[in-house]
Amino acid sequence: MAPALFLGIDAGGTHCRARLVDEAGMVLGTGRAGPANLTLGIARAHRAILAAAAEAFASAGLGRSAQRRTHAAMGVAGIDDPGLARAIASRRFGFASVTLRSDAVTACLGAHGERDGGLLIVGTGSQGIVRIGRRFRRVGGWGFMISDHGSAAVLGHAALREALLAQDGVIAASPLTRRLMRRFDHDPRRMLPWARQATPSQWGELAPMVFAAADKGDAVGVRLVASALADVERLLARMRALGAERIALAGGLADAYGRRLPRRCARWLVPPKRDALAGAIDLAREAGRAGPC
Hints:
Elements: E1 5-11, E2 16-21, E3 27-33, H1 42-59, H2 64-67, E4 70-76, H3 82-89, E5 97-102, H4 103-112, E6 117-122, E7 126-132, E8 135-139, H5 152-167, H6 175-182, H7 188-197, H8 200-204, H9 207-215, H10 219-241, E9 247-250, H11 254-258, H12 263-266, H13 276-290
Parallel strand pairs: 1-4, 4-5, 6-9
Antiparallel strand pairs: 1-2, 2-3, 6-7, 7-8
């Protein structure tokens, strides 16, 4: 019998990544596809996961038969919604076993390995996860519309709201607000259609502009970053209260926040040992040891 393979998937709100390894842990292939957050639609997320996986197998020079001896584990954004979790679990993947967890759980496992600790993801969305023993506790991460404090999507949304206030003369304009409004020819009516259909990742694309403006002393940018940083500090404090003595930051804004946090928070932070794909592969190995589903 051919040896088992292990596939890790990190299905996030901006992109979906895959890594295929053998029993010795050697990386055989990798893949990448578009957003796979379940809130964007189950069919869309499923296609992205399969596309990333297919690219990993193709880059390894392996065909469909190899998938049947592969144990896959997936960290999926949006899976904390029970309905969405049931929907993605009902989809066919074609692997020997499939383990589904949140992307925060797999990232935490990757960051700390077998040790207890916490992980705060600050990317397109945000979520804190604290592991004590085999128990995981979450902090935030309930989605762009009602949660995800400190995330790129929430920050980008806040920035455009400020830009619109400046356009209407409610607050003083700044280089940041003028730059944002230029994207819509300084016409709020052109902004509306975009805003109605924008995804969290599209809102999140505005966040780097906010940080860059704050670094230049832009009044609106400074205020927005200070508010977002305060949100991140509150999330970290709650994670500490839940027992996380070590906390790793992950996601596209991890560096931006990491260098701005006050010393009392910065001393809680540790660099992640590994990434979310490594954490997913740990789960895939665990499923492989348990035998076929």
